[in-house]
Amino acid sequence: MLEDIFKIPSLKRQFERAIVVDGFIYNRPTLLNMMRRFTQMKELIKPAKTRFATAFLTLARIHQQKTNLRKMFTSEEWTTSKWAKEQQGKRVTQIMLMPSFWNTVVYALKVSGPLLYGEKKPPMGYIYEAMDRAKEAISNAFGGKEERYNNIFEIIDKRWDVQLHRPLHAVGYFLNPEYFYSNPNIEHDN
Asked: How many CA atoms lie within 13 A of 66 on its CB side?
C-alpha cells in the first residue's frame, strides 16, 4: 500500500526532495556534524524493514526536525559556509524553506501513519479491524473532507481487494473473542 501511496506524483516529488536533502547532508561529514548540532544529535534517516516504511519514517524525522533544519539553513553558519554557495546547497535551502514541501510532508504523514503505526498485534484476526481503524484515522486527520483522502482510500481498497481480503482473515476476525465477546480473556468455560 505504501508503495502505491508514494507513487502519487506530489508525494513522490516531495520524497525525492527529501532524498536530495538527506544525500546532500549525509555525504558531507562536516555538514552532517553541523546538522547534528542543530538537531541535538537526532538523525534524519530511520531505517525500516521496507523502503517505503523507511521513506515514511524519514519524512517523519525530517518533519520532527523542521524548526531545527530551517534554523540551520537560515543560520549565519550555513549562509557563510561553502555549501550554501554550491548549486545543490542552494537547492537544498530552497527545499527546506518551501511551504509546499512541508505541507506535502504533513499530508504524507497523515495518510501513511495510520497504516504503519497500528497496534503491534498479530495480523490474523485483527487485520479487518486494523484497516477500519487506519481508514478512520486518515479520515479524522483531514476532518472528514473526502476530497483530501479519496485517492488514498482507492489505493487501500485496491490492495485490500487484491491481497488482503481472504477467507482466512475473515475467519480470524469472526473467531476473535475481542470483537464478539464481553470478556476476551476467558480461556476455559467452567
From this structure: 12
What digits encode the pLDDT tens for the residues 71-88?
Answer: 999 999 999 999 999 999
What is the value of pTM for the model shown?
0.69
Going by C-alpha positions, the residue among 144, 134, 139 that lies closest to residue 113 is 134
Containing structural domain, residue 15 = 2-104
Write the pLDDT tens digit of every residue in 131-173: 778 888 899 999 999 999 898 888 888 877 766 655 555 666 5
Give the contacts of 115 (CB within 8 A, at least 6 positions apart).
Answer: 1, 2, 5, 134, 156
Task: Look at residue 77 and tell me if it is in a domain.
Answer: yes
Report d(CA 81, CA 84) in Å as an integer.
6
In a domain, 74, yes or no: yes
CA distance 43 to 59: 12
Q: How many domains does the chain have?
A: 2
- Say if residues 164 and 1 touch (Cβ distance below 8 Å): no
Among 104, 138, 163, the domain boundary falls at: 104
- Which of 104, 135, 164 lies at the terminal end of a domain, its last residue? 104
